[in-house]
Amino acid sequence: MGGTSSPCASCKLLRRRCSPDCIFAPYFPSNDLCKFAMVHKVFGCSNITKILKNVPVEQRGDAVRSLVYEANARIRNPVYGCVGIISKLETQVLELQMQLAVVEEEILSIKMQQEFIFTNGGT
Amino acid sequence: MGGTSSPCASCKLLRRRCSPDCIFAPYFPSNDLCKFAMVHKVFGCSNITKILKNVPVEQRGDAVRSLVYEANARIRNPVYGCVGIISKLETQVLELQMQLAVVEEEILSIKMQQEFIFTNGGT
């Protein structure tokens, strides 16, 4: 039972016995079936197992969180998934960099004007 | 053969007959085994099939490109995958928004100073 009193969400959904060393049990508690259902739908059980086994135990919690996020993004946006979010953020970064360049240019121009006015005594 | 002269990369890797209506053939040409190998490693064949079938034909090219990007990110960073990229971009957006706020504050302050100088005749 993965160290808990009831089978984990993965074993519940896959209708199998939850062994004490179940790789999913620490990350998919029995009261949250939805979380496992999402990653299972997108990655499949054997792929999640492979990914988790490929990661040190202390980083598996983070790996599960990122897989859940990624699966959720793919379910919401079947064509672009996470890549849609990356694309929007990249556009936002470019827009902000452009805005920053414009404002910095404006500051430079104001400072040059000020310098000119002070040097020429306001004439 | 998915309409081409040799089996597509997917059928080649999975050692199966490539039928004329193979769902992978248009997106995984036989000369690029690596692309299919990557998505297969992360999502598995049946999950890629499900995702593609869930998407209109005219958007399947984009879906494949996003799956390849996502798989590549997961292989490079097994713990965070695409979510690592999203996290970095979110940090970059926040930093740029803060920089922009600082620079805009600076402009406002310079303009107020200028106004004060002009109103008080530089005294």
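Chain B has five helices and no strands.
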